[in-house]
TrEMBL record:
Keyword vocabulary terms for this entry: DNA-binding, Nucleus, Repeat, Transcription, Transcription regulation
Origin species: Rubroshorea leprosula
GO terms under cellular component: nucleus
Protein name (record): Uncharacterized protein
Domain HTH myb-type: 12-64, 65-119
Protein's cellular compartments: Nucleus
Superkingdom: Eukaryota
Pfam families given in the database record: Myb_DNA-binding (PF00249)
Length: 234
DNA sequence: AAGCGCCTCAACCGCATGGGA
DNA sequence: TTCCCATGCGGTTGAGGCGCT
């Protein structure tokens, strides 16, 4: 960036910084539709925007791109973020791939907010225990102390839901925007180091979690119970 | 009404990565 | 193989909004 700024300065141009104006957005939109969402330096140059290519790319990806979702993260999305963050850590871009319309920036920002909230809750002595890895990324680890965790099926049975129902294809996210994505992910995952069994079980469980997100309260330990057994799966 | 603190989110920064010469 | 450049990614910052006192 310093190099870009320096290069612009050498050419006698000063790069715009700060919030984008409406006319800048329109200009960027126009040139991206003409030239595609590649070659950002070129787009920045030919559009006349006094912005770096990087800045143009960011603006496009995080705001102007079609099908971007603005607004609140749903409970369902939140749980997916939690699950994926637990598995992958701060791989925001990778997590964002699993949430159509959400950007890595959205998720990153959301996680910071979420994290802060959880830490505050923890300080207040909430039973929701999140242990943070020392020196590593900030992925929360669900406490498993006491060895008292039930399997997800056990939990379902406790809640009077048959494991059959939880395991059938009918159980999936029929009303969820993630319905098709999940099957895509499973096939995608199948190419990753023979992890297909793991992911089938993982997504089957995750689908169940998502499907029941209406009745599983935010504070329920079902999510953690479910994920604990999954993350420990070999 | 004013001041303050907290929260959210857009944008920036710097490093990593990949591809081409 | 090495270098250079564009792009991608994750961490961080700061402006503005909002609620509380």
């Amino acid at each position: 960036m310093a190099r870009e700024a320096a290069a612009a300065a050498m050419k006698g141009k000063k790069l715009h910084r700060g919030p984008w104006q409406e006319d800048e957005d329109e200009l960027l939109n126009t040139f991206v539709s003409l030239l595609g969402s590649q070659r950002w330096d070129f787009i920045a140059r030919v559009s006349g925007l006094k912005r770096s290519g990087k800045s143009c790319r960011l603006r496009w990806l995080n705001y102007l791109r079609p099908n971007i979702k603005h607004g609140h993260i749903s409970a369902e999305e939140e749980q997916i973020i939690l699950q994926l963050h637990k598995r992958w850590g701060n791989k925001w871009a990778r997590i964002a791939e699993r949430l159509p319309g959400r950007t890595d920036n959205d998720i990153k920002n959301y996680w910071r907010t979420y994290l802060r909230r959880k830490v505050q809750v923890q300080k207040k002595g909430d039973q929701h225990e999140f242990l943070f890895e020392k020196g590593g990324n900030a992925a929360p680890q669900c406490s498993n102390e006491g060895g008292n965790h039930k399997s997800f099926v056990d939990v379902l049975e406790t809640e009077n839901i048959s494991s059959d129902a939880a395991g059938t294809s009918d159980f999936g996210l029929t009303n969820s925007p993630y319905e098709t994505r999940i099957s895509d992910w499973i096939s995608e995952f199948s190419g990753e180091e023979g992890e297909i069994k793991y992911h089938h079980e993982y997504w089957s469980c995750l689908e169940s979690c998502c499907h029941y997100s209406d009745w599983i309260s935010e504070d329920s330990d079902i999510w953690e119970t479910c994920s604990d057994s999954l993350w420990n799966m070999d």
